User: Fold this.
Amino acid sequence: MKRLIGKTISHYQILEILGSGAMSTVFKAMDTKLDRFAALKFLSSQLSIDENEKDRLIQEAKTTSALEHPNICTIYDIDELGEGQVFIAMAYYEGETLEDRVERGPMSIQESLNILTQIASGLSKAHEKGIIHRDLKPANIILTIDEVVKILDFGIAKLIYQKSKTRSGMIMGTPGYMAPEQAKAEDVGPYTDLWSLGIILYEMISGELPFKGDNDIALIYSIVNEIPAPISQYVENIPANIDYALQKALQKNPAERYQTVSEFLGDLGDQSGKKEFNTVRLAPVQTDTIQSIAVLPFNDMSPDKDQEYFCDGLAEETISTLSRVEGLRVVSRMSSFQFKGKDLELRQIGQQLNVRTVLEGNVRKAGNKIRISVQLINTADGFLLWSEQYEREIKDIFRIQDEISLSIVKALKIKLIGETEKNIFKNYTENVEAYSDYLKGRYHWNKRTAEALKKSIEYFDQAIEEDPQYAPAFAGLADAYIILGLYGASPPQFVMPKAKAAASKALEIDRDLAEAHISLGCIKSVYDWDWRGAEEAFRAGIELNPNYAIAHHWYAINYLTPHGRFDDAIKEINRALDLDPISLVINTTVGLVHYFARQFDSAIDVFRKTLEVEPNFAMAHFFLGQTYTQKKMFNEALAKFEEANRLFGGSTNMKATYGTAAALAGKKDKAAEILDSLLETSREKYVSSYDIAAIYAGLGSRDKAFEWLEKAIDEHSYLLIYLNVDPILDGLRDAKRFKDIKKKMSW
Assistant:
């Protein structure tokens, strides 16, 4: 085959050999017509085919080329080089094969699952079209320099395999990755590719193949007859659901194996009682029926650069509107705004957020005039799908917003049925001043500091004064008071009744405002202890807007987790992650659910991974310290609490938890010192009685712990909702006083 280098075949100039095997040789070539690189794959002369088989191979290549999936290698052409020898022209990608990557050693679970998800996405598309790969292996998978997975050789293996059945004693394929039915020359199906996918996942994580042999015959015997060692033999602390999914993927009988890609990924992410909770999320496999979008924060092009709140608010309102469109997955504000001020390619953003499209825009506001330029871009290829520029008076802002959202929906070819359009494109006010103050309120609310939250309340109040029927402003006011209470910045008795009144007023104005239902659900859970009413409110909000990430987040951590419904909590928090995939808060909450479920190793895994993304995220340090405490890793725990306190800047809850850990570690003098400090602080500002009770519990002072828990009941301390699941209180659960406290909370 080396003789071909330097020659021009058809309109391809052969440059060099990229790889060679028993069945084929791949060359890098220059397409002289289109001036682009290509990869030419020549089948071995031993596998030359007759005209009928060639016609079938051409048809298979056409079918594969028509898949047009970002994780499937594009086929340009198929042709013949004399004497029946066939070659296929494919796209050329800079990068390395998965085989090369695996040879460097085992990969992390997260990296392995990210790659597996992309492979699965391509397989799912092919299987929908009735195409089975039949030779899925690391050598047939390219990892591009942009970290995109490309599957090679769709359609080629089928004909090779069919040909092999006519040759006595000859089995075609790659023994280490072939399924038992292939080794026995039996019928194949999607389950065959899923066997190979299981082998690949096993090898990526462990660095080992599950089936081994000194030669091909011994290896095939192992595949057909032997049970592979569980991956936990090679990898410590492997999540049980991954172990389970691999065992099922490698069942000998195809009927007992996974039949579809979604089943495989479903078990990898399943949280049923028979398996541990999943500690690593998988991005969902996208299908043609699911559109997805991220709205990036708009750029302030105003002369004075003083319209950041307006630009952020306009993008956030667009997110809110689009989230009500059925059939459209909209990434939440928290994740899409992570890219604010960062110079990243849209393809990278699309990959990180797992979206097909991105909306970006510029805003120029001067006096009563506003100019908004927006463009919708396909993240896979960077192509512009739609763009528009609006130059109007500021009073037309509401009409502009509706036009932008409706144009996006039309560009994505999503049909709105019946009253849907009316319900989605709803203007809650015509008062531009009220709207502007509302945007300022949300701008400060999103900062989540005590000072910013109080500032947001001022703006929400101003918006309500300007338009007393502005329902979202009431919902924003409720959320500001709620966060002040949850963060311990204000006494619950002071802020939660105000939050409830604001949320109730919002619903009085508009019963279909999802945000207000979620706010009310949170209040009924954490303050009223109205458990039935809380769940009804959460479910109502989620039904009205399934794309509202905060709804799934708060339902998971403020209702399902306190009730010990950990399976449901994991499903809801994973749904929140689908909508807000790079939110540090939500990722940390996944670990917190594990913590309350007493899955401490899983919790540690999640918190550590969060800190890999952002080493200075105080909450992950804090909760990791809590988990270390339960593992009796006291030195590590205290170090994490010190780091969290340094980063966060003086949270009384963090100080109290440090005190509890110090007490359990036998450092009772340190615990007493922290306790005295908090009691002194409580004379000047709010300190949760629950926190004081926790320190006394750590010190073994049960009577004092119950005394302060009673005070926590009187003040409706937020953390009381975790009474049934908080490990810190385990030493008190056998007492009658503990049962009495539960009754007061209607448990």
Remarks:
- Residues 156-171, 270-289 have pLDDT under 50 and may be disordered.
